Amino acid sequence: MLLVVRKVEMNGINHGRMTIILIDRGIMGLWAPRPSRLVTSERLACMSRLQARFGLDSVYVVCQPFAQGGLNLRSLSMLNKATNLKLCWTVLNSQDIWAKLLKARVLRNKRPIQHHSFSSLWSSIKEDFGIVIENSIWSVGNGLDINFWNDSWCDTPLVDLFGIPSHIHPLLVSTVSDYLLNGQWNIPPQLAQAFPNLCNVVNQVTIPLNQSEDHLIWKHTDSGDLLLKDAYHFKLQHFQELHWTKIIWNHDIPPSKSLLVWRIMHNRIPTDENLLIRGCYMPSMCSISSTSLTGSNTSKASSNSIRDFSFLKYFKIEIHHPKQTYLREVCWQPPGADWLKCNIDGASNGNPGLSSCGGIFRNSSSDFVYGFAEPLGVATSFYAELCGAMRAIDLAFQFHWHNVWLETDSVLVVSAFNKPTALVPWQLRNRWKNAIHKAKSMNVIISHIFRESNQVADLLANHGLNVDTICLWHSIPLFAKDSFEKNKLGVPCFRISLV
């Protein structure tokens, strides 16, 4: 047996946490200790010190996030559960030999075995297998690894969507690739007749133009990956957020004073009464009596008030004067000859909230060529901006406009063109890759514009919030005509900028 041990120290204390790579009955994997093994003497002593220090009935109060009234400390038992969840996710997604061997041993048709398996790794993560499957969805690539009926790849498994009896589920073994032909859906007529809504369901899923592998996506993150931090927050029990926490936990308040106020809110100040309740008999040592204003470092800019200035000077707090501002003239510029410029924008009532996108195509003479506004449902503002860019590329590709200049007031959209998969949410990733693929067959450039010069696209995007289906225009709509004429005449706009 080959054994490699790596000890991990946390806050200078060795908690016995080990990562072990071993060959165990033909399986090479990672061993994760169970929660009970983390209850060491060091941890018990640490819990006792916290309880004695703050006088808490349960030490897990301090393990709640700041917004929920805690101190945002990490619970070791919860961290161990999160590690097991992350490890289960890694096993299902990894293509390493050890993961393939383990999956071949404990999974049958993507379902876990019911009998016992002599594997410490599987014993630690088998309880999280169902959690991972319920909170994951498949991103369609070539479709070879996705069961067409049983797997979740279009929000809801098709067997649940169409009410197929459970005893038939094991007999449905066809994959998504069986219903794809040249990158397009190819549903047999008999199947479409038996399930009339099937074509509408599958057509909502974007098939990538370039061949790629299928990927399992964690639903609750934009990246689609499950990190240990995400697993910890998923496992953590969530309570109602408290409004006062946003006031005391502030970057401009020294942590020692925030902690003092936190103890006041929980009635954990060592006053005479509280000390007597805890069995301590000593003179009062309340820390409030000796409190002074400390921590004079702040990043906030000072106001123009003489009273505030005198107060800050009296306590010797460093003053940051407001930065000087100036009016900056910004203008919309037409494209060059044989080019079209498309200004795009997204709108969202909340983040996330009801959202839409819009755009306007203009030629080198600043004449209107084409416009669109599309409702998107509930989404973030960045999601709406990306949808506007993708819709503009799709229209340019459809009408064979080969020289297109995209202009947006979102810096993130410009960055997404340089890093196609780093910023784009997983819900849009296939569609975004297809848009990039189409853009490579054209002359497409993208640049940033200040929102003051992007008013026409902003009006179109806001119009999309009030419609149910996509709107397309061959002439400028009346509600955007004034801003359009100002851009055409070169009327400048003004923006307040910092020096």
From TrEMBL:
<dbReference type="InterPro" id="IPR053151">
    <property type="entry name" value="RNase_H-like"/>
</dbReference>
<dbReference type="Pfam" id="PF13456">
    <property type="entry name" value="RVT_3"/>
</dbReference>
<dbReference type="GO" id="GO:0004523">
    <property type="term" value="F:RNA-DNA hybrid ribonuclease activity"/>
</dbReference>
<dbReference type="InterPro" id="IPR044730">
    <property type="entry name" value="RNase_H-like_dom_plant"/>
</dbReference>
<feature type="domain" description="RNase H type-1">
    <location>
        <begin position="336"/>
        <end position="466"/>
    </location>
</feature>
<dbReference type="InterPro" id="IPR036397">
    <property type="entry name" value="RNaseH_sf"/>
</dbReference>
<dbReference type="InterPro" id="IPR026960">
    <property type="entry name" value="RVT-Znf"/>
</dbReference>
<dbReference type="GO" id="GO:0003676">
    <property type="term" value="F:nucleic acid binding"/>
</dbReference>
<dbReference type="InterPro" id="IPR002156">
    <property type="entry name" value="RNaseH_domain"/>
</dbReference>
<dbReference type="Pfam" id="PF13966">
    <property type="entry name" value="zf-RVT"/>
</dbReference>
<protein>
    <recommendedName>
        <fullName>RNase H type-1 domain-containing protein</fullName>
    </recommendedName>
</protein>
<dbReference type="InterPro" id="IPR012337">
    <property type="entry name" value="RNaseH-like_sf"/>
</dbReference>
